[in-house]
Design brief:
Radius of gyration: 20 Å
CATH topology of the largest domain: Rossmann fold
CATH class of the largest domain: Alpha Beta
Number of domains: 2
Order of helices and strands: EHEEHEHEHEHEEHEEHEHHEEHHH
Helix content: 25-40%
Structural class: alpha/beta
Strand content: 15-25%
CATH superfamily of the largest domain: Glycogen Phosphorylase B
Shape: globular
Distance between the termini: 17 Å
Largest sheet: 7 strands, parallel
Strand order of the largest sheet: 3-2-1-4-5-6-7
CATH architecture of the largest domain: 3-Layer(aba) Sandwich
Length: about 350
């Protein structure tokens, strides 16, 4: 292994997507880095029952260090990571976040690179701006680099105003070995499907874009997957609960259209395509998305994706969408994402950023 290629990555979970929407993002990025010769140790706490709901076994392309979610577990993880050439702390670990953000900077070797990787930059920035005593704020200028899951120039500008040395978005992408078209599965056959956990800043938007559309289209079948949703009491919605990532291809390949709804903060900042857009495009799905700034960087509205500003517009789009047209849009999206937005593209982007710092 070449010097400078040893990465310690502290984040929520690599092996489980349970209450952890960033799992497929981490997997794609780290597989891409492994292909480029980096050696990654992923440190994740044993928390939120994630180890009981694993989607994958420990992979060949990363070493997974699961630590107890207590003082001793944290201490041993940090001790193990201190010699890494690149130390990464992702947002939203869920356990000891404040401690980790400071500790990464304390334990790193002099010539090591420290990175804060924000997988929910809009929420982090809103929190820091609204709380003058936020513990993370004074640490921002101390990190060598801030990476974000999205957010475009509004997030870059906001981080630089807070003193970041540099801030670069590494957007979500497709892992074509994991997400691809499969045969239709009768369990997931519907007119419109949505996969996403119930989150406070997502819920109202789901009520608008999904529930409202379902009420307006009683003759069409809707499917809702994800943690935390109660039975909504709308007869044409099938409620699935947690859908494991191994089922996502079947889900996305079986629905006539797949809905994307961004969380409120991500829609407000824009430039934040979530994982489900790339997963669905990778399966050749016809995507209907809520409107957000920057979507054309990834998919062309009207040709590779359908865009709606409200639940009424979702219902309108669905009402006029033939299976043939849905397939045409899905195929166009699949081609665009494969050509420009795979995790191999993202890993090469990250490598060029790291070279510039060195």
């Amino acid at each position: 292994m070449k010097h400078g290629h040893n990465i310690a990555f502290f984040a929520s979970s690599l092996v489980s997507a349970y209450w952890n929407g960033a799992a497929t993002y981490y997997r794609g990025i780290i597989k891409g880095l492994d292909d480029l010769g980096y050696s990654v140790t992923f440190y994740e706490p044993d928390a939120y029952d994630r180890q009981k709901h694993r989607d994958i076994a420990d992979p060949s392309w990363a070493r997974v260090h699961v630590y107890k979610a207590d003082e001793n577990g944290l201490g041993s993880a940090l001790k193990s990571a201190k010699d890494a050439d690149i130390l990464i702390k992702a947002s939203g670990v869920g356990v000891f976040d404040e401690r980790l953000e400071a500790a990464i900077l304390d334990i790193k070797k002099n010539d090591a690179i420290s990175i804060f990787w924000d997988v929910d930059a809009p929420a982090t920035l809103d929190r820091v701006k609204n709380n003058p005593d936020d513990a993370f704020a004074p640490l921002i200028p101390k990190y060598d680099l801030i990476l974000t899951y999205g957010g475009g120039y509004p997030v870059i500008d906001a981080y630089k105003e807070l003193g970041a040395k540099d801030c670069v978005p590494i957007y979500n992408a497709l892992d074509p070995a994991t997400h691809f078209p499969v045969d239709e599965d009768s369990r997931y056959r519907c007119d419109l499907g949505f996969l996403g956990n119930r989150m406070p800043d997502r819920e109202e938007r789901i009520r608008e874009f999904f529930f409202k559309a379902a009420k307006k289209m009683p003759e069409q079948e809707f499917m809702l997957g994800g943690n935390g949703w109660d039975e909504p009491g709308i007869p044409n919605i099938t409620y699935l609960g947690h859908v494991y990532t191994r089922e996502h291809n079947s889900f996305n390949s079986s629905a006539k259209a797949v809905l994307n709804v961004n969380r409120e903060s991500m829609a407000r900042y824009g430039f934040s395509p979530p994982t489900r857009i790339f997963e669905a495009a990778g399966a050749g799905s016809c995507i209907i998305t809520d409107s957000w700034k920057g979507i054309e960087m990834f998919l062309t509205p009207g040709e590779e994706v359908l865009v709606a500003d409200s639940g009424d517009e979702v219902a309108e789009l669905l009402g006029s969408l033939t299976p043939e047209r849905a397939k045409e849009i899905g195929t166009a999206a699949y081609k665009r994402i494969l050509a420009e937005h795979t995790y191999s593209h993202r890993a090469r982007q990250l490598e060029s950023i790291l070279r510039a710092i060195r």
